[in-house]
TrEMBL record:
Alphabetized Pfam families for the sequence: RVT_3
Native source species: Brassica carinata (Ethiopian mustard)
Domain RNase H type-1: 124-243
MF GO annotations: nucleic acid binding; RNA-DNA hybrid ribonuclease activity
The keyword NADP belongs to this UniProt entry's keyword annotation: no
Keywords: Membrane, Transmembrane, Transmembrane helix
Transmembrane segments: 42-67
InterPro entries reported in the protein's UniProt record: RNase_H-like_dom_plant, RNaseH-like_sf, RNaseH_domain, RNaseH_sf
Record-given protein name: RNase H type-1 domain-containing protein
Amino acid sequence: METIVHLFFHCPYAKKVWELIPFSGGFIPMPLNNFDVEWKKLLQAVVLPPIGLGICPLAPWILWSFWSARNQKLFQKRSFSIQETITKAIVDAKEWMEAQVTVPISQKLAVTQGREGFEVICRSDAAWKKEYQAAGLAWSFYQNQSERISSHNQSSAFVISSLVAEGLAMRAAMEHAIDLQMRCVLFESDSLQLVAAIAEGSSFSDIHGIISDIYLLSNFFNSVSFRFCRRESLTFEDSVAKKTLADFCLNQIAIPALV
């Protein structure tokens, strides 16, 4: 029985396509990985020139081309070459990119210096370990500057930089705030680079997707803003993030010993 993982990653046709896509560092699907693991790797993969997509992700369009080619072969007896599948993915990605309407930053969210007018303050932080390509994320909600309502954390794999880790922490905090039906929130981070990227539009391909998610999530709030804060203000979140990362790394070390 054909599985999704086999169709998209391990059949000879798919393997050849992945070999020919000029990803930075290449992309080789691992036999024991599930779809979610491979998908996260693809989302972080950068396509090199001369394809010319810039920061537009190509992976979703490759998977769509696989699915389309499979259906064409099953139901219409039409076969597509490997190069035709790659070309279709590139053309679809470029068409999608050209169709996007750029909304001015000022219409999406604000970056503020003060805290007035916000019901909740959310502080997020992250710890990152290069050797494991992993991160510990932490965020807390405050009624005011010192009254912490709740604190939360999670680990994340396949994180390629500390900046990506900070962005993931901010995005996770926003998703959680939405789940809790918070409507007026000020998000604070000690990553000046992240806050600047939100304010100006990211020029970093590493976090372009995360910044796009932040813009989309901001639509769920009545009032949302972002502010740079000093590291001293995030002492608690920093310690939680580091412990989360340490626990994750210990689990990764222990796994081979159990096999």
